[in-house]
Write a structure and sequence with these properties.
With 323 residues, the chain is mainly α. Helix content is 75%, strand content 0%. The chain is built from 13 helices and no strands. Helix 6 runs antiparallel to helix 7, helix 7 runs antiparallel to helix 8 and helix 9 packs antiparallel against helix 10. It starts with 10 loop residues before the first helix and ends with a helix.
Amino acid sequence: SLIDVRLPLAPSTALPLALMAVLLSLLWNSAWMRQRSTAIWPTYHRYSYLVVAFVCVANTTLVHDAGLSAWEVIVAVAVFGLVAAEQLWLAMRRATAEPGPATQGISRRDLGELHVWLAEGVAALGAVYLWWMGVLHLGGIMGRFAPVVLAAVLFGVSRAANASRRWNVLSQPFEWTSLLLPLATVGICLWRHVSATAPGWLGLNSLALLLAAAFYFWRGLEQKSPRLLILSAAVLNTASILLWRELDVRDPQFFMIPLGLTVLGLIELLKPQIPSGSVDPLRYVGALTILVSPTFHIVEGSWLHLLTLLIVSVLITLAAIGL
């Protein structure tokens, strides 16, 4: 036969076809092409080429065991990157355009933000694709730290976009996404801690969680958000627990003292939002959590833990006097 096509296509064939289809889709979506055709044809051709690109990329997932070469990775990133960039451009164009007959009742900003969310969805789909093809490894250093770094970058972009009239539509979706991304770091670190019997670098999971906690603490202070501050405290204590478990430390003090200090710190930060009648009982809970921690070994005759109890008692008393 003249055409002998065997499925699934190899990535070396399917990915360039997908890239070509995306480029043709961009061409049909351009103002130059819209001025030279009827109203319906650009939309029809654009979505047809996007379907071809999707089929070509999906085809390569059937042969994921072979992996991707460096050139194929570049082409795959270009495919997803161009589609995401097009959605961001459409978001700007929708948000700044005059509402037409088809958009009555829907604000221009809502239409623009929809395209921003679509762009983020395409980027997330691209990340999943690269993970499935063995390019990205969630358990590595990049998998642990990349979500927090990306969250900081997206938050910076959202602030810059907020000051721009044309790109203001990016600010709210990017800010919301930046608040969700560190949770991916929490999930990855917990998964690696449970699944990995011997981590290569002790404390790596805790360090990544510490950065996530610092991000939420910063955003919580800036927004004066109790939820973010409480989330920061939860992530911080999770980091502490994972660290002591990796170091094979089983003394309850190492787990309970950070928890008690966190409770006391949150009470002081959130005092205006806490009912006045609940402040002192919550302080008692935090203080007792700290004071009870050495008693597990004191009953066994440990003088060191008795000394620890004396020290923390004095410190808590001084802190109470100061408060």
